[in-house]
């Protein structure tokens, strides 16, 4: 309705097909609770301010979609629990509403801090890379977790999701299934968000990584929550201004989607030109799987894999002087099941120089990576010539 966030921003965190589907329904319920909270009594001015606020966050931290979801999802979660407990959420005072919005902002900065997308105002704060990798699912197994990382990183995220699920359970119990089914906005949102989640996970389930990525890219325009929200505003709301906001929501979202970086081709495969995170996802899944198949193995050491990846970029491992890119890692014993295994079990050397390439001048880089060394390395010079 007022935040143009597509379902993949949450599903982004959940890479298995079943959680993907649940993620779509989960996000649909969160949005529905926000609809119920705001109903048709929302002031158009408040609507516009929150819309601007959400886009401001999106533009200044465009890569950090997870941070966007956690921050704004926290707002939705609190709204949801607030509505579930109170008889009429519309009786809530302005102070309560502002407190909820403020909590979302706080969570946003907290998440960007621990996830490596640190705003400049927090540059002096530093935490271990372990917490980042754990929260993002890069190193769940065989990783020593420091108590500090656990406290600031893992436990709050777990608590957040538990509270969100409790809020949904209370909401479902209080509203009843019949009302949920009969609610046009909820039905439309679940249909679009849930369908996106299910259909988007089928290619991944079948192992077609590139097809899944292309599906992900194109389906953003047609099967995403913000489009459902915008269309709902246009069709359902009586206020002409709210209808206009719905048109603006859909228009801006389509504009943002259509202006995504275009594909380029390397070694017969397509990657995003500048979106280094998505590039690294495709590269890791396709090449890790191909490497394993070519060598007829089910386990591979990270050093062997990185040497293979660097060879794709026209490099040799010995050409890399940066200790960060040449450090030896323990051989990881794991079945080859594509990106899910790779991302879970590898600290990812190559990912650190592929993903951390800046392409948004408004985005502040993490202070945890030694950029001077990486940026001057031969590997990144090759990457810069191709992608930047």
From TrEMBL:
Keywords: Membrane, Transmembrane, Transmembrane helix. It comes from the Archaea. The chain crosses the membrane at residues 12-35, 47-76, 97-114, 150-173, 185-203, 215-236. This is Glycosyltransferase RgtA/B/C/D-like domain-containing protein. It comes from Pyrococcus horikoshii.
